[in-house]
From TrEMBL:
InterPro entries assigned to the protein according to its UniProt record, in alphabetical order: Cadmium-induced_rsp, CobW/HypB/UreG_nucleotide-bd, Glyas_Bleomycin-R_OHBP_Dase, Glyas_Fos-R_dOase_dom, P-loop_NTPase, SAM-dependent_MTases_sf, VOC_core
Official protein name in the record: Glyoxalase/bleomycin resistance protein/dioxygenase superfamily protein
SUPFAM superfamilies to which the protein is assigned, alphabetical: Glyoxalase/Bleomycin resistance protein/Dihydroxybiphenyl dioxygenase (SSF54593), P-loop containing nucleoside triphosphate hydrolases (SSF52540)
Alphabetical keyword list: Dioxygenase, Oxidoreductase
Gene Ontology MF terms in the entry: dioxygenase activity
GO BP: response to cadmium ion
Limits of the VOC domain: 9-125
Organism per entry: Prosthecobacter fusiformis
Length: 735
């Protein structure tokens, strides 16, 4: 098929014929042109008006009589995926085949049946071939209609192995003959009786391109030093328990793609050598055929200067690189936020010789999905500083960013700080992301209209947890065509964490507030020991060991956003890795609600005026210290106290800020003004485990006493909100 044919959608009709030669002769007369392909077992006509592909398949009629199937040849992979997602979301089962050899060509396609059983094929064309290939219309793999029913007598293209059954290699199945393989407890057999890597390689051989393998059994958090001792009940048949990270590695080594956990039990069912043994369910797919035709052109956006994929393609940042359709689909699956696909143009592009040689128009870039990154953590963990550092890191790489802040009330210091750094920022007030999910999506849409971000960075409320089940999973389920979701990173203040986990004495929270603190860490994909410069190496490693034991699934990294150390590796993971699917954690929403209700919340806006210039930096330090001392007298534990001051006569974005993250710490100036001020706006955010009225009284008293020490300075409270957060009620929760 010529390249230009791929630029037109074509209706496709496949007919069963009893005599191929007679049918070819008939359709040559009908269409007034010879067959585009004519083989002993297949013929095809390309019709220009109306655009159509009519294929003839010799053999007896099938369930639909002379009709074999109907279909549509589409323009590109994006359109193919969009239609398949639309059908699946409406309840229609589809069968995907990537890079399959079929009908003397290489295609990527999916099949679906309409409610009356008519088989439809939607596909994109890659290249012509000299042989028919193994692809064929699926006779029994797809159900009719939406009820998922199928012919009970139809052969099932799958194979299941159970723990304890003998495995003989090579498997008796033909190459590319299976759609699914289930290994039920297989990896729990003794290594002496099973060569698991060899079995996985042979399973790959037997599966069709796009076919799935599922592994189910018991796995340990880390490698055991010896054979597994006898386990009780049905688990007594288990002879070997691998560590679960090694299973992903073995699947990848065998040649599988998209290996991921679909279940990883929250708690271990058993224990061996003091290590929890968890139930795991892992899925992976056989990659499609890699055509040699490099008919797609992509541009790598960063963050590194150059990267190389699993297929030997090297991508220099900013340079167009030709790749195959298969390799582009793999890039979309694994690193979508880092690449842009460029449209091919039939005419010569206007962008110079380099673009002309690549066959692209650099002005017609088709952006891939936007990246969604959420940086969580308890109040005072350093989220806003990290968000600002990540935003700068990405913009330095040439990417556009959009920021979304979140609070239980309006007037957020974080929003002021981030907008002051020049970033497009939307604020969601009145509840956490989980309870304002639709508003979160609206904020992303608004940012898309304003700044067209490549990356969205969201900072949730510091007292919020259960973000995976209520935010990232629903986002991926409902808006997976618009976003790729990064692993959830949760920052932890190391001094606060050592107190919560009993490693150090000092002010801490009550048990229900600590429940939220720990639940945030439990659901994290990446736990970041933030402000790592505050601890010595021994104390830092002791904390790391505790966190790794308590939360074995998470990766533990150390960083100091303030000192700008340890951030590059973290940011690289957030831009390249995908959030793994696992069972959402169990959350007691009554305890969660009680914990949030113990926290007092105060937001206030104050106008400062003076007839003589005053040092705003000194004022912030004095006010923060005054409020801190009052709350210490009440025995109140401060979670986070932060303020910004914006001078009326300052340039855009100029401000001073101060931050206090524990009652027994020292207020720290984050940003300072270079010149004295005669007036401006003060924003106060205070969160502590105390009655909100106590917080309001401390701030009012602090303002009165502090302004009195600055001649001619007055403070007018323009707006204030003080309250306890209500019980969280998520918009969605994916189990």
């Amino acid at each position: 098929m010529p390249d230009s044919a791929a630029l037109v959608r074509k209706f496709h009709l496949s007919l069963n014929v009893s005599d191929l030669s007679k049918s070819v002769a008939f359709y040559q007369v009908l269409f007034g042109k010879p067959a585009a392909k004519h083989h002993a077992d297949y013929a095809k006509f390309e019709v220009e008006s109306p655009p159509a592909v009519v294929s003839l398949v010799p053999g007896r009629s099938g369930p639909a009589g002379a009709l074999n199937h109907v279909g549509l040849c589409l323009l590109d992979a994006e359109e193919l995926v969009a239609i398949q997602v639309r059908l699946e979301e409406a309840g229609h089962k589809t069968l995907r085949e990537d890079g399959v050899a079929c009908c003397y060509s290489r295609q990527t396609k999916f099949w679906v049946r309409d409610p009356d059983g008519v088989l439809l094929e939607l596909y994109i064309f890659h290249e012509d071939m000299d042989d028919h290939g193994d692809g064929h219309a699926p006779d029994h793999e797809l159900p009719t209609g939406m009820d998922g029913g199928s012919d009970p007598d139809a052969p099932v293209a799958s194979w299941t192995h159970q723990l304890g059954e003998e495995v003989t290699l090579p498997l008796a199945m033909e190459t590319n003959s299976l759609q699914e393989v289930v290994l039920e407890g297989t990896f729990n057999m003794a290594p002496a009786s099973l060569d698991l890597p060899a079995l996985l390689r042979d399973v790959l051989r037997a599966l069709r391109p796009g076919g799935k393998v599922t592994l189910h059994g018991l796995a340990a958090d880390r490698p055991l030093t010896g054979p597994c001792s006898s386990l009780p009940g049905p688990a007594a048949a288990v002879q070997h328990v691998p560590d679960f990270p090694s299973l992903i590695t073995q699947l990848q080594a065998a040649g599988f793609a998209s290996a991921r956990f679909t279940k990883l039990s929250e708690k271990g069912y058993f224990e061996a050598e003091g290590i929890p043994l968890r139930e795991v369910l892992i899925e992976a797919v056989k990659p499609g055929f890699r055509s040699s035709k490099k008919d797609q052109t992509v541009v790598y956006l960063g963050p590194q200067s150059a990267v190389e994929d699993d297929f030997g393609n090297r991508y220099a940042k900013g340079c167009p690189t030709p790749v195959t359709m298969h390799d582009w689909l793999m890039l979309k699956t694994g690193s979508a936020g880092q690449f842009t696909l460029l449209k091919r143009k039939a005419e010569a592009p206007p962008c110079g010789d380099a673009c002309a040689e690549a066959g692209i128009d650099s002005k017609e870039a088709m952006p891939t999905k936007a990246r969604y990154i959420m940086i969580g953590g308890f109040l005072g963990a350093g989220k806003t500083t990290t968000v600002g550092r990540l935003a700068k890191y990405l913009t330095d790489q040439g990417l556009r960013v959009g920021l979304i802040t979140n609070d239980q009330a309006g007037g957020l210091v974080d929003t002021k700080l981030l907008r002051g750094q020049g970033y497009a920022t939307e604020e969601i007030a009145g509840g956490c992301f989980c309870c304002r999910f639709n508003t979160l999506v609206e904020a992303a849409n608004k940012l898309s209209d304003q700044a067209k971000p490549d990356v969205f960075i969201a900072e949730p409320v510091g007292s919020c947890t259960d973000l995976v089940a209520t935010v990232t999973y629903p986002l991926r389920r409902m808006y997976g065509d618009a976003f790729t979701v990064a692993p959830l990173s949760v920052l932890v203040d190391p001094v606060r964490a050592r107190r919560v986990f009993g490693l150090d004495a000092g002010g801490s929270f009550s048990s229900k507030v600590a429940y939220i603190f720990k639940k945030q860490l439990e659901e994290a994909d990446i736990i970041v020991i933030s402000k790592s410069d505050l601890l010595g190496e021994e104390a830092r490693e002791e904390l790391r060991a505790v966190l790794q034991k308590e939360f074995p699934v998470a990766r533990i990294v150390t960083a100091s956003p303030r000192e700008e150390t340890g951030l590059t590796d973290l940011f690289s993971q957030l831009m390249t890795d995908e959030q793994a699917r696992r069972n959402p954690m169990a959350v007691d929403y009554e305890v969660y609600a009680d914990g949030e209700a113990l926290l007092g919340w105060l937001n206030a806006t104050v106008t400062l005026k003076a007839t003589e210039e005053f040092e705003a930096n000194d004022f912030l330090r004095a006010l923060a210290t005054n409020v801190q001392e009052q709350l210490q007298k009440e025995g109140t534990e401060i979670a986070h106290f932060k303020m910004t001051y914006s001078p009326d006569d300052g340039i855009a974005g100029e401000l001073a800020s101060i931050n206090l993250v524990r009652s027994d710490y020292i207020p720290e100036l984050g940003m300072e003004l270079d010149e004295p001020s005669e007036g401006g706006q003060l924003i106060v955010n205070l969160r502590a485990e105390a009655d909100p009225a106590t917080l309001m009284e401390a701030v009012k008293t602090g303002l009165e006493e502090t302004t009195a020490s600055f001649p001619t300075l007055t403070a007018k409270l323009e707006h204030e909100e003080h309250f306890r957060p209500g019980k969280p009620t998520p918009t969605h929760r994916d189990e």
